[in-house]
Amino acid sequence: MEEKKLKNIYQSIPAVMGKIKAVEKDHINQAQKYRFRSIDDVYNACNKAMAEEKITIEPKYSILGNDLNKTDRGSFVRSVVLQGNYKIIAEDGSFIEISTIGEAIDHSDKAFNKAMSQAFKYALFQVFMIPTEEDKDTETKDNPIPPKTQTNPKKEEPKQDQSLENELNEETKINIVKTKASEIMTKKGIKKQDQKKKVQEIRDLLNFDKAVIDFSLRDWETVVRFLEDEK
């Protein structure tokens, strides 16, 4: 009887990729108002496929940064940066090694947990190319395109563009909060030319899912609160 040949790592990874379903952003960060995928969602998506293909992972972590700062209000905030090193092993013993970075900030004792979860989550995404949304075929009979209906256009009286007004109001409010953030940084001794870099550091520290130029009013308010609490 011919002995079954064990899969190597380069055969096992594509096999897992073919079994993992999409992991969509089904959770909302209430503080910064952005959608995200949790580490539990990624675990659930990968667990069965990895078990079937007999893939194991050995994680190791190196601390790149670990700072504990006291805020102006007397509370403490810990900032952690880790490098996750992962050995991904197939059933025949062959393996690959990859590294990712995890960064987190927490006012309690969860900073290291968050950083490890972030690093591990993106390691799994990168190795197994986990899809981020389901295929949506809009041309099937199950998703018919509604027929166009003809209506007699009505003449509308000229009126003020409310959306434009709201947009201007929002922009004005953002500028006010940005000015406040700049004033706080100036009082802290941060020069004008270095303030954008400081805001970028806060963005990365709080895991904002957008560039500084795309900050919403709520994002800028979060930056101001961070600056006020910062030691």
Quick recap of the structure?
The chain is an alpha+beta fold and 231 residues long. It has helices at 9-17, 39-52, 111-128, 162-187, 192-205, 217-229, and strands spanning 27-29, 34-36, 56-70, 76-89, 95-106.
Report on this structure.
A three-stranded antiparallel beta sheet has the order 3-4-5. Strands 1-2 form a two-stranded antiparallel sheet. The protein is of the alpha+beta class and 231 residues long. Helix 4 (162-187) runs parallel beside helix 6. It contains six helices and five strands; from the N terminus they run H-E-E-H-E-E-E-H-H-H-H. It has two domains: 9-128, Enolase-like, domain 1 (2-Layer Sandwich); 163-229.
Give the tags.
single chain, 231 residues, alpha+beta, Enolase-like, domain 1, 2 domains, three-stranded antiparallel β-sheet, two-stranded antiparallel sheet, 6 helices, 5 strands, 41% helix
